[in-house]
């Protein structure tokens, strides 16, 4: 069973970690209130970084509430692929209650897993085709 801690090894800590994701986006999962950008890593586990601006969430209390919820849902995810993930907040988040945010995030994590599997299948297909075996 996966431990439900949230160690530093599961966070994007340095600006270079964020830059790697922004420069090499391989997965993009949009939502009305969130945007998830991700790129594969070689660490054997997923890492997450959060970006919530004052422009979209005026009060620090609002930003902190959303960040806590994103971290908590990330922490409970089972079988997340080995990705570096950046979660960006969009306008309108401050109008959502905690249960709506929870539902949106659960849906987003499900979509991240699904898109990653589709991308893996697509790359395997294109590799097989380029080798002439497909």
TrEMBL record:
Q: Return one GO MF term.
A: 3'-tRNA processing endoribonuclease activity
Q: Which EC class heads this enzyme's classification?
A: hydrolase
Keyword Oxidoreductase part of the UniProt annotation: no
Domain of life the protein comes from: Bacteria
Keyword terms of this UniProt record:
Endonuclease, Hydrolase, Nuclease, RNA-binding, tRNA processing
Enzyme Commission (EC) number: 3.1.26.5
What InterPro entries does its record include?
Ribosomal_Su5_D2-typ_SF (IPR020568), Ribsml_uS5_D2-typ_fold_subgr (IPR014721), RNase_P (IPR000100), RNase_P_CS (IPR020539)
A GO cellular component annotation in the UniProt record: ribonuclease P complex
Task: Give one GO biological process term.
Answer: tRNA 5'-leader removal
Look up keyword tRNA processing and say if it applies: yes
* Pfam families in the record: Ribonuclease_P
The UniProt catalytic activity note for this protein reads:
Endonucleolytic cleavage of RNA, removing 5'-extranucleotides from tRNA precursor
UniProt cross-references to Gene3D superfamilies, sorted A to Z: 3.30.230.10
By its UniProt entry, which HAMAP family does this protein fall under? RNase_P (MF_00227)
Q: According to its UniProt entry, what is the function of this protein?
A: RNaseP catalyzes the removal of the 5'-leader sequence from pre-tRNA to produce the mature 5'-terminus. It can also cleave other RNA substrates such as 4.5S RNA. The protein component plays an auxiliary but essential role in vivo by binding to the 5'-leader sequence and broadening the substrate specificity of the ribozyme.
What the record says about family reads: Belongs to the RnpA family.
Q: How does it assemble?
A: Consists of a catalytic RNA component (M1 or rnpB) and a protein subunit.
The protein's name in its UniProt record:
Ribonuclease P protein component
Question: What does the organism's lineage look like at the top?
Answer: Bacteria, Pseudomonadati, Pseudomonadota, Gammaproteobacteria, Pseudomonadales
């Amino acid at each position: 069973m996966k431990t439900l801690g949230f160690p530093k090894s599961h966070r994007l800590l340095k600006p270079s970690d964020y830059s790697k994701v922004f420069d090499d986006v391989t997965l993009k999962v949009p939502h009305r209130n969130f945007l998830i950008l991700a790129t594969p890593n070689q660490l054997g586990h997923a890492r997450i970084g959060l970006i919530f601006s004052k422009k979209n969430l005026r009060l620090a209390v609002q930003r902190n509430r959303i960040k806590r919820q994103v971290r908590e849902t990330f922490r409970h995810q089972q079988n997340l692929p080995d990705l570096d993930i950046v979660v960006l907040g969009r306008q309108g988040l401050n109008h959502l209650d905690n249960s709506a945010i929870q539902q949106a995030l659960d849906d987003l994590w499900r979509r991240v897993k699904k898109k990653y599997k589709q991308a893996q299948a697509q790359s395997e297909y294109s590799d097989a085709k380029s080798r002439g075996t497909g």
